[in-house]
Amino acid sequence: MTDKLPVKTFMLRSQKKYGPVVGAILFLFASFFFFWIGMGLERVTGKFLCLILSTASIGVLFFCVVSFVHLKRSKFLGFFISSDGFNDNSTGHGYGMVLWKDVVKIRIVDDLEHGWRYICLKVKNPYEYIGREPLQHKRRSLELKFQYYGSPICFSNRGLDCTFQELEDTIRSYYGNYLQREKEKDVS
Fold first, then answer.
1. CB-based burial, 17-54: b 16+ in 10 Å, e otherwise
2. Residue 124: its pLDDT value, please?
3. Which of the residues in the chain have pLDDT under 50?
4. pTM (2 decimals)?
5. Are 82 and 177 in contact (CB under 8 A)?
6. SS3 of 143, please?
7. Which of 86, 98, 88 is nearest to 128 (CA)?
């Protein structure tokens, strides 16, 4: 009898971890800069424009802080995989846990335009995974992936602290383990 494999995790790359912090610092300086410039202007329209830019910078600053807190709360975990499925947090899509029982095929896609490689998992129920995404613009992104790649579940190692080969080997071994356990279950 084939045993279940232990849970394996991949952490986010340092650029993904600390990008929001760097962004927050830059936008903090930008908001002070626009505010300082605006106070030195004599025309009201220039002051108003600088106030708008300063307020927009504070809004982006708030977004960066919220992003960092969200990443920190998830302990900078980018991808975890178990014998039941996996969850990819590195892409920013909220389709949740992808179960091995829903996976039909694993494909490697080379994006020649950008020079990236993607792992695309063809699933039995792609619209269920698309529907799990709560944000409309991200749902549209998953629909476009489905049209372009044939699956909404596509990811790479760009945001993860691992090589593409390491990620691919892990996906294939866990999926193979699932298939082997299902085959043994059918025999007995």
1. bebbeebbeebbebbeebbeebeeeeeeeebeebeebb
2. 94
3. none
4. 0.80
5. no
6. helix
7. 98
